[in-house]
Amino acid sequence: MTATTTPTAPAPALVRVPAMALPTLLLFLAALGLGAGATWLALEGLAPPWLTLPLHVAAMVALFVVLHECAHHTAGRLGGVNDVLGRIAMPFVSAVGAFPSARFLHREQHRRRSGAHLTPWNLHGPRWQLPLRWMTADLWHVYAYMRRSADRPQAEVAEALAMLVLLPGTLAAVIGTGHGGELLLVYLLPQRLALAVAGWWFDWLPSRLPDRARSYQTVHTRHPNLPFHRYRRAWRTGPEPEPPAPAVPSPRPAPEAEFRSLTVSTVRPLTDRAVLVGFRIPAALRPEFRFVPGQHVVLRTELDGEPVRRAYAICSRPEEAELRVAIKRLKGGRLSTYATTELAPGARLDVLPPAGDFTLAPHPREARHFVAIAAGIGIAPLLPMLSHALTAAPRCRATLLYVNRSGADTLFSDDLSRLARTFEGRLRVLHFRTDERDPDLHPVRSARPFDSIGTALAISYEHYHAGALDGARLRSLLAGRLHPAKVDEWFVSAPPELADPVRALLAEHHVPATTVHREQFRLS
After folding, report:
1. Rounded Cα–Cα distance for residues 471 and 423 (Å)
2. Alpha carbon 224 to chain centroid distance?
3. 274: closest CA among 433, 399, 413?
4. Distance between CA atoms of 524 and 149, rounded to whole angstroms?
5. Which DSSP state fits 447?
6. Are 145 and 101 in contact (CB under 8 A)?
7. Euclidean distance between CA atoms 22 and 70, whole angstroms
8. Which domain of life is it from (predicted)?
9. Count of C-beta atoms within a 10 Å radius of residue 188
10. For residue 400, what is the DSSP state?
11. For residue 63, is pLDDT > 90?
12. Which of 22, 444, 452, 516 is most buried, judged by most C-beta within 10 A?
């Protein structure tokens, strides 16, 4: 098993969403205030319709901008702020729509890159129809969503149906009381005009500008998760840098003299197919074997007269005296088979000093969120990385998605539980078990009722899910707790069958390539 590392690059500050986007909140409050003031002037007869109507339209266009920010999760990283603001703004933008379904359709537009930003409905048809299409874009959204509702979550569909009945029913009741004229003046007509302005501004006008024009659409296409108030800065930065070239295997160390003969101090079983191997580092070699969490070493020995060497991630922490690596027995793996069946304390192996740049070293004052995705032995570099980062930077937090067949195959399960408890919520671990018979998925209930109640009420930072981490599950996480706007950097340490789809899905959700780091283990 050899390590391939994607170079680590700092996350660009440009795409980092603040905890609460103050300009978005101020725009939201100003729009509500403007709309309320215009409604009061209109209903009290203190201003003519030609004055109040533009005020209502301006307020609703501003709320449309807020709604759009919330759909991209750029109103802030605080939990629920985008859902709350989005749901409040939605009835002012559309009388028939629901925020979760609108968010889904809009992000689908970005993924398909069909040429239209809001909806293809705004660009097709004869020119004389376009204003009418812009004013009825929300009706097209309802039609498009209902066609796909069978594949959407039940709660999302239920909310869409509820809003489709509740708000039009309320409007019908208001009209039935004889206030249809006022409703048309302060709500229905300005809402249709605001949709027309949005369709013209967000879809029709950008389609008529040159490709390299410094427009809203140009920046938003490049940085869909960028708050609107940072667009001017994005214009000044120029085009987004090209993604880094695909990772290539680190070159094998050539000079034989670089290897050092070290004594195996411990061999501890991790599972029935994996062991933890520790090396005693002589004082004279400690500067040479100083490492950063996430790096690896190359082990070399002679088996049946032939030299064999493989790279293994370091599992120990820098402050520990012993250097440890995890080795899992692989089919046809000569060194891994030897290490898990014959290697014993006292043996000597040639070890190349630590190398690799799959590392994590946040500044102590930073407040960042890291997501690590591991499968099987891929946890080896991530365990010391997360432990060291959360210890060194008390304001940082991390989420680990860890895929295994069962608890019996899970490496460092006790260490992960201990770390999750130690960091008290700053480290959350989501286990995915492909063997649905795994006991961790079916905890035994205590015969004592108070014990069961205590267990139910206890705070747990580890959660277990039956099945693999597939595309549907990862999409659901990216739409909620792990939305790209809430995550600063991603670390993937898994075989290609998991790592490749994960990176493709992150790219599909416009996660900057510079924030995704990969340690790929190639079996050989």
Report:
1. 29
2. 14
3. 413
4. 45
5. S
6. yes
7. 13
8. Bacteria
9. 14
10. E
11. yes
12. 516
What's the pTM?
0.65
CB 331 within 8 A of CB 277: no
Q: Which two tokens stand for residue 164?
A: 């489709």
* Interstrand relation of 369-375 and 397-404 (parallel, antiparallel or unpaired): parallel
**Cα distance between the two ends of the chain:** 5
Report pLDDT for 357. 87
- Residue 68's nearest CA partner among 96, 106, 33 is 106
Please count the other Cβ atoms lying within 10 Å of the Cβ belonging to residue 453: 11
Is 215's pLDDT higher than 80? no
The secondary structure element, H or E, covering residue 404 is strand 397-404
Q: Is 322 left (phi over 0), alpha (psi -120 to 50) or beta?
A: beta
CA dist 189 and 205 (Å) reads 22
**Alpha-helical regions (H) of 226-321:** 231-237
Binning pLDDT at 50, 70 and 90, where does residue 237 land? low
Give the whole-angstrom CA distance, residue 157 versus residue 126. 33
Closest to 325 (Cα-Cα) out of 282, 392, 266? 266
Strand partners, 323: 279
Q: How far apart are CA 515 and CA 513, in angstroms?
A: 5
> Distance between CA atoms of 271 and 340, rounded to whole angstroms?
10
474-493 confidence digits (pLDDT tens): 988 888 888 888 888 999 99
Helix (H), strand (E) at residue 313: strand 306-313
- SS3 category, 207: helix
